[in-house]
Structure to design on (466 residues):
């Protein structure tokens, strides 16, 4: 059982600074260091001591080891600041697992990583992807090359991003859901001189209002029950960029504190009196027109004036229809790589449906539609049968087209079923293939089907052979 938990630790980190094993009573049975040159817990003098003797300021409630042994549930990536019995203080990220034998918890194993003043691992052997994970940026940040477009308006957006990346001014991105605000924000960071620093992203509507303040500003130990010394997102983004999406969802009172932090480049953790200096580039985003947001009282005007020094508007996908085929091909290539498939793309009819659709979910929705097609595809081409039904006839009375409008735009009758529509289009394609070739064999080759299959379809639709 112990071996399995050690394996769990090795899966979480490429390297840990120390491993500690205690028995059920909290007595340290074993410690090991990967590099004793660092400010890590020394092996000497700890084995055989009780955990709370080694860390005199630590309580059973604060200790991840005792919590894990009491609950039987692992604790992963918890950040703590501890002081050992020799007076050495360090900030660590610890992952702790129970050790079980015969259905009973007999101890715990803990792996720790020493963090520097920026909250990053001091162990330079840790792979970049783990550093990126710690900073909240993922494996690789987006850059301008990831913005697939040939549309003039989007090309202008890319020019604006490249230009604004050169300075420090706050940027506000304005665009509907799915238009690529996260991609734009990461691109600003990637092309700036801060690209070597952290990129931290937070959707303000994704966290309950009562927790958002502590998430952003951090907490001091004892500020409330269970609170520990913990950095907030402002500190984690120090030296880099902090992206706050859906800024207008934040309560007005907290917006005032955000304004102060941005203007003064100082923050104060909850429950702490001292101010901490930060160096953070701010990017924010909203999904509605700023005038509407301000008129509705959802955002302080002084915060808007500060955060919206530079505004970049991202067009909806229906405003850049020429980009739809480019994006489709891009995601077809992407999912071929992901799934190990060789899908050629969409049939002509399916392409026509995609081009006539209004895309209320923008690029995100298009990507999901392509992924759906890959899951449903039965051959090397995605057909109309393998696209979501809601794309075929959009609801009446909105910005979308109704079923009749879609049908008329594609040359079909309003009361046709899906099968009848497919057959009508298939017949038209066969006629075009026959007209542009000399015989059935050539037409079959052009359509990439067998001669026998084409002959069957010619008979089915009452078409004459050449």
């Amino acid at each position: 059982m112990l071996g399995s938990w050690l394996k769990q630790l090795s899966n979480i980190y490429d390297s840990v600074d120390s491993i500690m094993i205690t028995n059920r009573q909290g007595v340290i049975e074993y410690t090991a260091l990967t590099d004793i040159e660092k400010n890590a817990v020394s092996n000497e003098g700890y084995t055989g001591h009780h955990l709370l003797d080694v860390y005199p300021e630590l309580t059973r409630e604060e200790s991840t080891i005792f919590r894990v042994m009491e609950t039987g549930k692992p604790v992963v990536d918890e950040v703590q600041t501890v002081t050992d019995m020799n007076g050495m203080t360090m900030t660590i990220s610890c992952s702790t697992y129970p050790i079980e034998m015969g259905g009973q918890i007999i101890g715990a194993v803990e792996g720790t990583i020493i963090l520097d003043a920026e909250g990053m691992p001091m162990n330079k052997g840790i792979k970049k992807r783990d550093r990126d994970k710690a900073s909240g940026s993922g494996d690789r940040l987006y850059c301008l090359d990831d913005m697939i477009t040939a549309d003039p308006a989007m090309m202008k957006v890319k020019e604006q991003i490249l230009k604004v990346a050169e300075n420090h001014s706050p940027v506000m991105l304005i665009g509907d859901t799915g238009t690529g605000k996260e991609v734009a924000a990461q691109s600003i960071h990637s092309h700036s001189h801060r690209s070597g620093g952290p990129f931290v992203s937070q959707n303000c509507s994704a966290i309950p209002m009562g927790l958002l303040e502590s998430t952003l500003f951090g907490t001091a130990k004892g500020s409330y029950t269970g609170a520990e010394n913990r950095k907030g997102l402002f500190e984690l983004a120090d030296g880099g960029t902090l992206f706050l999406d859906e800024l207008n969802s934040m309560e007005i009172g907290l917006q005032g504190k955000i304004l102060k932090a941005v203007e003064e480049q100082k923050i104060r953790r909850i429950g702490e009196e001292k101010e901490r200096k930060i160096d953070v580039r701010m990017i924010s985003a909203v999904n509605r027109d700023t005038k509407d947001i301000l008129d509705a009282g959802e955002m302080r005007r002084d915060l808007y004036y500060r955060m919206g020094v530079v505004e970049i508007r991202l067009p909806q996908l229906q405003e850049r229809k020429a980009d739809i085929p480019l994006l489709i091909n891009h995601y077809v290539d992407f999912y071929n790589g992901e799934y190990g498939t060789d899908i050629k793309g969409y049939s002509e009819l399916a392409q026509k449906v995609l081009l006539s659709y209004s895309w209320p979910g923008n690029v995100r929705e298009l990507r999901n539609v392509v992924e759906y097609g890959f899951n449903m595809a039965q051959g090397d081409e995605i057909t109309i049968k393998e696209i979501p039904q809601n794309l075929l006839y959009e609801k009446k009375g909105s910005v979308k087209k109704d079923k009749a409008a879609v049908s008329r735009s594609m040359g079909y009758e309003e009361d046709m079923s899906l099968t009848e529509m497919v057959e009508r289009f298939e017949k038209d394609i066969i006629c075009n293939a026959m007209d542009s070739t000399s015989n059935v064999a050539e037409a079959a080759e052009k359509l990439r089907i067998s001669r026998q299959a084409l002959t069957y379809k010619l008979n089915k639709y009452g078409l004459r052979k050449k």
